[in-house]
Fold this protein.
Amino acid sequence: MSVAGTYETVVKSPMGDQKGTFTVVPGDDGSTFTGSMAGGMGSMDVKDGTIDGNTLRWKMDMTVPMPMELNCEATVEGDQLTGKVNAGAFGDMPLTGERQG
């Protein structure tokens, strides 16, 4: 099953729930992806996105409220996405989402 799609997501951060729209666009080889995470604090592009079965791994460069690289991992089961966003010294923040459409 494809992991492609647009997901309405929530990251449980120290600053409260951060809602966003996560877009997954698999590459031609099926093992990489591009996309973005757009939310209340702007949009971040996916970097180094990889697909391993139904597991996604990627990085994003956050600029607001402070510059930091986020390391992310999520698993897609049906239309549900669950995983975590690692924000360095702030640790892991739970990530959940649901595919739209």
Q: What stands out?
A: The chain has a mean pLDDT of 95. DSSP finds no helices and nine strands in the chain. Residues 11 and 91 are 13 Å apart (CA to CA).
